[in-house]
């Protein structure tokens, strides 16, 4: 927007300068005068605009400056250096402890971008509930998340309400129960394939990459539960779809720089950048779009032929009948991307924690085996899985302690207030599960400890003082529609993995590289390499 305004203003100004002959001192012909005047004006006004918005406004003028916050170490880059260097949320965890505040913390991020961090349930409820359609997804989300399609995740206002109403029945617990056998069978398939990999290795405790297994299993599950399609990525790791998601979900230095550019450049500029990383994602997007369209066509044929099938999410959307094919295509893209890397991240954090905490792993295995005597059974039910108390405690604690989506962002679409403070249009709000889920104010002094037993406290909420203390799936009308589905899926996978295997880090206290992406998971040498052993008797 700003670029367009600067260009138009420079054009008008150069017209005036040429018309009034002010530029005749630098060149004779009007064409040459434009050729000199126009770019000079664009550059000089661009510099003035950038200096104002980058340095002057945030440092001296912004009304947000009076909100309490940590002192910025840099005049031009706020806390940007720390934010880039550290794990997502680590600087913010320090601020919520050390900066006395009333529910909002103000800080300057990369290149002095102004940010507000809500810290109390009251302010979080304002952003996520009472003003959820005023605090909308920022434009730059649309570039970063373009692989997620233009479905419910990106819709706003009445359009979002309409889509949410249509899609909610697909995630109803009754429907979930009917999908459970599918989740369980995919878990069994994964466990058998990993056990075969362990046996085929011929060494006692071979290394298995659980980032890859988790992603492939959850991708196959979403293919089947989302559209009744077999992606077969567990059996064929070189499968195109899996490779595409791997490539785009693995944060690279190039993507990091694009993310920074995305903060300051308009959407059309980002889409047209002549860079390989941009072309790769565009190609991936079209591949997935075509795949989703194919799934819709196949489903129409199956429905016309009355082929018996699972009531997957696509069937339910079609039966409901009010979404166009293009809308269904976008929703499928959303479910496929939003619904597999997130759960896979929870699986990765789980096996990594189990590899470091043998006492937790043993207790979990014992309870799993007591509740479910054989893994290879078709008759395991959701209720059996739900009955395993320590499984509930462990999975709840992983989701609290290592939220797969560490941060999400909102932007005020008009002037408003939060906690009584004036919030100008365009203000960015950071919603940070990775920070709020660790708040001592909300969880007590042991908030920073990994402790599954906290979920035995009365109330069933881990001792939190508010529902807004746990932001893993967010809250309010924009909370995760797939929450119940993903929790059942995740628990089934953990039953299979923790019940059958023991894990150990590849090397003691293995160093993790945790890079900021849409999801966050433990990574070492590009995967999650763990020594893996089959524990006999199950
Ligand atoms: C552990 C697993 C998961 C986590 C931690 C998670 C987390 C989240 C979060 C934090 C949001 C809010 C994003 C935002 O508004 O900025 C969200 C939204 C959403 N999630 Fe999930 N998710 C998970 C699994 C799933 C699954 C399995 C599906 C689908 C099958 C799914 C579908 C969606 C959709 C469609 C939305 C947008 C909802 C709306 O805007 O109305 N998610 N999820």
UniProtKB/TrEMBL annotation:
GO molecular function, one term: oxidoreductase activity, acting on paired donors, with incorporation or reduction of molecular oxygen
SUPFAM superfamilies per record: Cytochrome P450
CDD domains for the chain: CYP_FUM15-like
TM annotation in the entry: 32-56
Keywords assigned: Heme, Iron, Membrane, Metal-binding, Transmembrane, Transmembrane helix
One Pfam family hit: p450
Binding site for heme: 480
Cofactor(s) it depends on: heme
Similarity section: Belongs to the cytochrome P450 family.
Protein name: Cytochrome P450
Organism listed in the record: Arthrobotrys musiformis
């Amino acid at each position: 927007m700003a670029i367009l305004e600067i260009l138009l203003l420079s054009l008008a100004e150069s017209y005036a300068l040429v018309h009034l002959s002010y530029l005749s001192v630098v060149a004779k012909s009007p064409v040459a005068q434009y050729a000199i005047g126009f770019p000079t004006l664009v550059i000089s006004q661009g510099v003035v605009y950038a200096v104002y918005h980058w340095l002057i406004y945030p440092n001296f003028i912004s009304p947000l400056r009076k909100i309490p916050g940590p002192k910025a170490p840099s005049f031009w880059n706020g806390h940007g250096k720390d934010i880039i260097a550290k794990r997502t949320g680590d600087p913010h965890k320090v601020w919520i402890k050390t900066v006395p505040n009333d529910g909002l913390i103000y800080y300057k991020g990369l290149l002095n971008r102004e940010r507000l961090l809500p810290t109390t349930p009251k302010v979080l409820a304002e952003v996520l509930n009472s003003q959820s359609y005023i605090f909308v997804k920022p434009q730059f989300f649309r570039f970063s998340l373009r692989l997620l399609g233009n479905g419910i995740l990106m819709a706003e206002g009445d359009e979002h309400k309409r889509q949410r109403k249509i899609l909610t029945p697909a995630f109803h617990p009754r429907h979930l129960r009917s999908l459970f056998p599918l989740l369980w069978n995919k878990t069994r398939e994964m466990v058998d394939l990993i056990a075969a990999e362990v046996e085929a290795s011929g060494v006692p405790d071979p290394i298995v990459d659980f980032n890859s297994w988790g992603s492939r299993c959850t991708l196959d599950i979403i293919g089947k539960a989302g559209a009744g399609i077999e992606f077969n990525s567990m059996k064929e790791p070189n499968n195109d779809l899996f490779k595409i998601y791997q490539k785009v979900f693995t944060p690279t230095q190039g993507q990091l720089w694009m993310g920074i550019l995305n903060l300051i450049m308009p959407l059309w500029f980002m889409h047209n950048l002549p860079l390989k990383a941009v072309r790769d994602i565009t190609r991936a997007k079209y591949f997935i779009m075509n795949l989703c369209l194919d799934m819709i066509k196949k489903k129409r044929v199956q429905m016309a032929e009355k082929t018996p099938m699972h009531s997957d999410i696509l069937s339910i959307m079609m039966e409901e009948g009010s979404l166009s094919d293009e809308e269904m295509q976008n929703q499928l893209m959303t479910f496929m991307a939003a619904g597999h890397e997130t759960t896979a991240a929870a699986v990765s954090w789980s096996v990594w924690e189990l590899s470091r905490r043998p006492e937790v792993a043993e207790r979990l295995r014992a309870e799993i085996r007591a509740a479910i005597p054989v893994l290879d059974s078709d008759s395991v039910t959701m209720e059996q899985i739900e009955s395993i108390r320590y499984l509930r405690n462990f999975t709840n604690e992983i989701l609290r302690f290592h939220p797969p989506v560490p941060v999400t962002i909102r932007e005020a679409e008009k002037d408003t207030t939060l906690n009584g403070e004036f919030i100008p249009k365009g203000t960015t709000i950071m919603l940070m599960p990775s920070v709020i889920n660790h708040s001592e104010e909300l969880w007590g002094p042991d908030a920073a400890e990994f402790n599954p037993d906290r979920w035995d406290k009365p109330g069933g909420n881990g001792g939190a003082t508010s529902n807004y203390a746990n932001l893993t799936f967010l809250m309010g009308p924009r909370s995760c529609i797939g929450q119940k589905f993903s929790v059942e899926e995740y628990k089934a996978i953990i039953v299979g993995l923790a019940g059958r295997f023991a894990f150990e880090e590849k090397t003691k206290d293995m160093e993790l590289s945790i890079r900021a992406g849409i999801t966050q998971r433990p990574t070492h040498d590009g995967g999650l390499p763990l020594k893996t052993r089959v524990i006999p008797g199950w």
